[in-house]
Structures are given as C-alpha cells and as structure tokens.
Design goal:
It contains 17 helices and no strands. By secondary structure, the chain is mostly helical. The protein has a single domain, classed as Growth Hormone, Chain: A (Up-down Bundle).
C-alpha cells in the first residue's frame, strides 16, 4: 500500500510554528521562576494565571474558527494571531507584579486564540483525509523543534551570555518579527470550501458531525487531568540549577518532536483513536512517575536543589523524556479525529469548538492542580491527574460511540 503524501502546506505551516515556538520558548521556561521565585506567587496563582489565560483564549478559538468558515479569511486571521502574540510576549520583561504577568500572558494567549482554529482548518483543507493524522503530526513535530531551539537559546543566553531573564525576554522579539514576516510572505492558503449558501428548502444540520459532541466530551475529561506544563518546570526547578531548567524543557520538546515524526507512518496506517488512547494511557503512567518521584525524594524537594541526590535528578530527566514521548503519540492524532468528525465546510468551527473546550478545561485542571500542590503535596496533584487521564483513555478505547478512525 502506498503511503499518502504529506502536502507542502503542512511543512509551510509547520515552519511558521517552528519560528513562533522558538520565540515563545525563550520566555516560557523562565516564567515559573519569575512568578513563584522572583515575584513570590504561590503555586496556585501560577495555575490560576495559566488556566485563566487558556480559558479566555478558548472562546476566541471558536469565534475565529467560525469567522474563518464564514469569510474564508483563515490566512489573515492566522497572521493576525501570530502578530499579537509576538508583540506582547517580550513586554513580560517589564512586569513587576503578578497582575502585569497575568495581563501579558492572557494577551499572548489571545493571539493563540485568534490563529489556532484558522490554521488547523487550513491544514485540514489542504490534506487528504487518509493523511491528516500524519500531516498534523508533522506540524506538531516542527512546532516542538522550534521549542527546542528557543529553550536552548534561553539556556545559552543565561549561562554563557551573562543575560538576565528579563533581557532574554527582550531577545525573543528577534524570532518574533521573523514569524510575522514568514507568515505573510511564505504561507499560501489552500483552496478552501466556500461558505455554504443560504438554505432554500432544507435546513442543514449545523453541528460539526454526529460523533463530534461525544468525542469532545471525552477529550474534555482527558484535559481535566492535564495541568499546565509549568508545574513540570516548577518541580524541576527544585532538582536542577536555574539555567538547566530551559535545557530540560529543550529535552522535553526534542522527544516530542522526535515522537511526532516517528508517529507519521503509524498515522497513515493505524487508527487515530488507538494512538490517542495510547497517548492518554502513557500520560497516566508518566504522571504516576512524577508523583512517585515527588514522594520518594520529598525531603530533598523541600530543602532545595543543593541536597538532591543524583538518582532524583536522573529520574526527573527520564520522566521529562517520557512525557515528551506520550505527547507525540496523541497530539496530531487528536486533531485528526476532530477533522474526521466534521464536514469540510465546518472544520474551522469544529476546530474552534475543540480548542475552546480544551482551553476551558485548562482553568479547572491547572487551578485544581495548583490547589492540591499547595494544600497537600505535588505527589497527590500528579496522582490525581494520572487517574483522570487513565479514565479518559479507557472511555475512548471502550465506548462504542467514539469516533473510530
């Protein structure tokens, strides 16, 4: 059987995401230390800010996905979203309090809300259905590769360049400008299905697809167990030196990128539902590993990195790598399921609904995780996330109403 060809649009859109993540990830790995360390915010505040930022942006994902379907302006909306994020992100260098960080973080996520659904609709519209899981995996792989570049640049600037975190934030403006230029000049929109004409006698079903709502419900449950990855960085900051935290972030996304590309052959031949269920099950196992590490080395965790045994550092590094592997299994396949459950001329709306639900679930997931972290222990928080992800994987695998693709 010949393998379906991945279209050029997937590589172009992936290239834009590559440069954007290089800019974003010069900032993101340093945020937990800024918020919890320099500004003295509790872990619950970190979770609340990340959750609110995702929740605010999530409503925009549906609105702009629908707007793209109605107007055909997916490319313009995507370019605008990249411009907004890369304008406000370097300004975090000027934040002096939790409110300033929160406002800028929300503004950054607004840009993501503006661009995400139109971008995914462009990719789905340009890719044959049988190759969509592979195309989305390629896109996610390039996205993670950009994260590797940005995190490595941040570590080098901190360690060998003598720059402060605030100055690294400012340097993120350089790839940020390149993102917008590349999006304007290099990305070409595929021929999209025109918005449907007004019905004459028969009113079409406005829902994205028959199996879409049940699928969305199971995805929402999986996201309830997926706290912000900022908590992984917060945990790592107690085991390694500050300049090494971006390197762990780099490792995480190196594995994510590698896994995303390794999954491409599977995505053209195996069930996307199977890949997603496997990825969620791996999420549960890895979170149990983080919980075990937090419990096993609780004393070192409380006292700080200076007294952490080498075995603890090795365990945390291995868990970061394992977390990247599970993400590579499911990220592209999830979007393939969404595309399969929606008609061609409503994909922007379907992806908008998908991103809205996952963004809204980020608020209770991250805020609840942070509250458990503060009230009990990191181990309890990770164990709760593991249980929720495991239940979602079981439902997706066993429930006969799930999309079977």
């Amino acid at each position: 059987m010949s393998r379906p060809r991945i279209p050029a649009a997937a590589w172009w859109l992936g290239a834009v995401s590559f440069v954007n993540d290089a800019a974003s990830e010069m900032v993101l790995p340093l945020l937990p230390a800024l918020m919890v360390g320099s500004l003295g915010l509790p872990a619950a505040s970190l979770g609340a800010i990340e959750g609110v930022a995702s929740a605010v942006a999530s409503g925009l994902k549906l609105a702009f996905g629908r707007l793209g379907d109605r107007t055909g302006k997916h490319r313009a909306l995507m370019v605008g979203g990249y411009a907004v994020s890369n304008l406000v992100r370097p300004l975090m260098a000027l934040a002096t309090g939790g409110l300033g960080v929160a406002v800028l973080r929300v503004a950054d996520r607004v840009g993501k809300g503006l661009r995400t659904a139109p971008r995914d609709a462009l990719l789905a519209a340009s890719t044959p259905r049988e190759a969509q899981a592979a195309a989305f995996s390629v896109h996610r792989g390039l996205d993670h590769a950009g994260t590797i570049l940005g995190a490595a640049a941040a570590a080098l600037l901190l360690r060998y360049g003598g720059f402060s975190p605030a100055e690294v934030f400012g340097w993120s403006a350089v790839p940020g400008v390149l993102v917008v230029v590349l999006a304007i000049l290099a990305v070409r929109s595929p021929a999209l299905v025109a918005p449907p004409p007004a019905p004459v006698a028969v009113v079409p079903d406005p829902r994205p697809g028959r199996g879409f709502s049940p699928l969305l419900g199971i995805i929402a449950l999986s996201r309830l167990g997926l706290a912000s990855e900022m908590f992984l960085l917060l945990l790592a900051g107690r085991f390694v030196e500050p300049w090494q935290v971006p390197l762990l972030w780099c490792l995480l996304h190196l594995v994510k990128a590698t896994a995303s590309f390794l999954v491409v052959p599977l995505g053209t031949q195996l069930s996307a539902r199977s890949l997603v269920a496997l990825g969620w099950a791996a999420h549960s196992v890895v979170f149990l590993g983080f919980a075990g590490a937090a419990v096993r080395w609780h004393g070192a965790f409380v006292e700080g990195a200076g007294s952490v045994p080498s075995a603890a550092v090795v365990a945390v590094v291995g868990l970061f790598a394992a977390w990247g592997l599970q993400a590579g299994l499911s990220e592209g396949a999830e979007k393939s399921l969404v595309a399969a459950a929606s008609p061609d001329n409503e994909r922007g709306t379907a992806f908008g609904a998908y991103h809205m639900v996952t963004g809204l679930m980020a608020l209770p997931a991250s805020a609840g995780f942070g509250a458990l972290w503060d009230a009990t222990s990191p181990g309890v928080a990770f164990a709760a996330g593991a249980g929720t992800a495991g239940l979602a994987a079981l439902l997706l695998w066993l429930w006969p109403g799930a999309v079977r693709r």
